[in-house]
């Protein structure tokens, strides 16, 4: 399960799930039970997953899921043990099935369980400011501090020696040791995932978490969305400047330095030792390698290999950019 904080209401029979999404195909499956919905990598036997893009064909070959929502053109990439369910709109049907398993993951209403920290078990071992609120199922380690007007909503784990600033909101997050989260951050809220359906939008359930590894720092006013069907991860010793947005499922490696106002679209992956200048943009579902340097204001719209230096929009090799713009 991707998020230990959302309740899985399964298992469900595969026939029930297909009827719930108005599956039109006449495929006749046995009354096989499905335990969970997961991504291609995390799925186990008894799970259902999805494949909507050729970018993930290699992952599809090794998935352990029993069923996969996919297209006619992509079904041949699945492992032999994974039964394809061919649909016209893979992501929309995936969202509908996810909502069946996790009905509480659609909305992000305020946490009604919170209470003032001086009424909780943490009043003795946490240094805190005024108007600090703590929800249920929260864990806070030793030698931590929390600033004024901060809300630690239910389902948050904070490690040792962490500093949480003022006016911060945390939920659905696992914060490791020696992490600094500066003023005004919002971490663990749902991502920007929805599908236009006729005259309305269907929200994609966000059942992932945010994981911030040891010794990371998150700058003022930054927002980090929790994952949809996987995790959003900030690696060890990675420093984010102010006003950075990280969308759902983004994974940032270790020892990265990212300057202010950089934006990451969903499901992109950064390697280790990446440096990004201010106001750069990283498109979704991309892979940026290790030791990459991206100049400020650049627009990254394709994968970048290890040890590259790029600049411009679209981002290209730094030497080529300088040569073309003399």
Could you outline the blueprint of secondary structure elements for this entry?
Layout: E1 12-13, H1 14-20, E2 33-34, E3 36-37, E4 47-50, H2 57-61, E5 67-70, E6 83-86, H3 90-101, E7 115-116, E8 126-128, E9 133-134, E10 138-140, E11 144-146, E12 151-152, E13 156-158, E14 163-164, E15 169-170, E16 173-175, E17 180-181, E18 186-189, E19 194-197, E20 200-203, E21 210-212, E22 217-218, E23 223-225, E24 232-234, E25 239-240, E26 245-246, E27 251-252, E28 257-258, E29 263-264, E30 269-270, E31 275-276, E32 281-282, E33 287-288, E34 293-294, E35 299-300, E36 309-311, E37 316-317, H4 318-324
Parallel strand pairs: 3-4, 4-5, 5-6, 8-11, 9-12, 10-13, 11-14, 12-15, 13-16, 14-17, 15-18, 16-21, 17-22, 18-23, 21-24, 22-25, 23-26, 24-27, 25-28, 26-29, 28-31, 29-32, 30-33, 31-34, 32-35, 34-36
Antiparallel strand pairs: 1-2, 7-9, 19-20, 36-37
